[in-house]
Design a protein that fits this description.
Length: 422
């Protein structure tokens, strides 16, 4: 099994290019199921999660061609032969459940295994099911599968009031509503940039959508959608992660393509620790001087709040602040698995329920550590960049789900990092 070896203590200088968003691509790909015409996605990230979604779509009979080294995906659901998403694929990735809404809307039926995915809490799919039920679908849970059927004549437009914000449930409902009869209103909808990106792509395919990016989205169903070409939005989580690299290790790095509006809440907290963030003509530049960073309190929230997907990385940064920081995780229970691993590197972190109290220490020390989920793994790599000595991060298959060419990108700005096999 591969591991990543980081030798800490070098400053980072140079440019890191930011890829297209994994989470946007994972909802744009299933949108192909809504039409029998071709959908082309450009700026796709090259990640194992994208390959998993490719396999899932192919298992349904869709065609997915990976072009230009994986940066362009040419999809066609002209010849879909199955509406059943098997456990063997779905268990690898929770986002597989995003085929449910499109299958149901276009074919009137879907069977989707209940998902697995990152071990960061219970993560049920009840909101997905309730939204589709509101549109007239009948749902039945049997043998680990969701069995869904649309009423005769297809899904109906409906008003869906989400009791709390769910990115995935908003995406499933939004896709399904594009082909429903009549108007659908999604209230308390997620406002994430990936939702805006999905709505823009669906509109290119002929959908009638307004209000994306606000908490109320209105969709007027149409009889059929057509083909489109769409460029995947920038990955704001990859952006935030690499903004933290010079923030933790020191130096000055430009994040090519970086946009401050995608990471505003995070950037504000990062700046409060004493790190400099500047907009440039081609992206964002993050610089850190020799001074110790300051502590800051952080609470995760749906967009435009501080993203839960950057909480672990921020904790690695705050581990060496000049005082106490309090991190509150409000989206997922059980998302502090990185804390005991960071503690093995000398961090002082106390976790109580959804709150972590981080007492900054002067320096972290390298250690063998274990990655437990995607964002936890990368937080350990970041910590290793500034730690004394060597950090060996094991179980890196999590990293390959969400960061393309991580060693190459960090190596190019001066990090001493390599992939080793154990
Ligand atoms: C998406 C992102 C993930 C990110 C998360 C929150 C993708 C592929 N993944 O995940 O990286 O961390 O948003 O920003 O885009 N919940 C329920 N019932 C449901 C749905 C969700 O109780 O039916 C709960 C979840 O357990 C969680 C919270 O709602 O506590 C938010 O989850 P949600 O926004 O749905 O996250 P995902 O779409 O799974």
């Amino acid at each position: 099994m591969d591991a990543i070896l980081v030798r800490g203590g070098t400053e980072l200088n140079g440019t890191i290019p930011i890829a297209g968003a994994k989470n946007a691509c994972l909802t744009l790909m299933p949108a192909t199921l809504l039409t029998d015409e071709p959908l082309t996605l450009t700026n796709a990230p090259r990640l194992s999660d994208i390959r998993t979604m490719t396999q899932l779509l192919q298992s349904l009979g869709a065609e997915v061609q990976s072009l230009q080294g994986g940066q362009v995906l040419a999809l066609s659901s002209h010849d879909v032969t199955s509406q059943r998403a098997e456990y063997d694929i779905v268990r690898k990735m929770r986002a597989s459940v995003l085929v449910l809404g499109p299958l149901l809307a276009r074919f009137g039926r879907a069977e989707v295994s209940l998902p697995g995915g990152c071990a960061i809490g219970a993560r049920p799919v009840d909101l997905h099911l309730r939204a589709l039920e509101a549109m007239g679908a009948e749902m039945d849970l049997r043998e680990g599968y969701i069995h869904a059927r649309a009423p005769a004549g297809g899904l109906r437009g409906a008003t869906v009031d989400f009791p709390f914000v769910s990115v995935g449930a908003t995406e499933n409902a939004l896709m399904a509503a594009t082909l429903a009869r009549g108007t659908t209103v999604l209230r308390n909808a997620a406002r994430e940039p990936e939702i805006v990106d999905l709505a823009q792509c669906l509109r290119r395919m002929g959908a009638r959508i307004s209000g994306e990016g606000s908490d109320t989205i209105e969709i007027e169903g149409v009889a059929a959608l057509g083909g489109a070409t769409h460029r995947v939005v920038l990955d704001r989580i990859e952006l935030g992660t690499y903004m933290l690299a010079p923030a933790i290790a020191g130096g000055s790095v430009e994040l090519a393509g970086g946009r401050i509006d995608l990471v505003a809440a995070f950037a504000e907290k990062l700046a409060a620790t004493g790190v400099e963030i500047a907009e440039t003509a081609t992206g964002l530049r993050v610089s850190r001087g020799p001074e110790r960073i300051r502590p800051v309190d952080v609470a995760t929230a749906p967009f435009p709040g501080f993203p839960t997907d950057l909480q672990a990385q921020m904790m690695a940064h705050l581990a060496t602040a000049s005082g106490v920081s309090v991190l509150e995780e409000r989206i997922f229970e059980n998302r502090f698995m990185h804390a005991p691993e960071l503690a093995r590197m000398g961090a002082r972190i106390e976790v109580q329920g959804g709150t972590a109290r981080v007492q900054g220490v002067e320096r972290l020390r390298g250690a063998p550590v274990m990655a437990t989920d995607l964002r936890a793994s990368v937080s350990l790599i970041l910590a290793g960049l500034a730690a004394e000595g060597e950090t060996l991060v094991k179980r890196v298959y999590h990293l390959d789900r969400g960061y393309e060419r991580l060693e190459a990108k960090l190596g190019a700005v001066g990090a001493r990092i390599e992939r080793v096999s154990e």
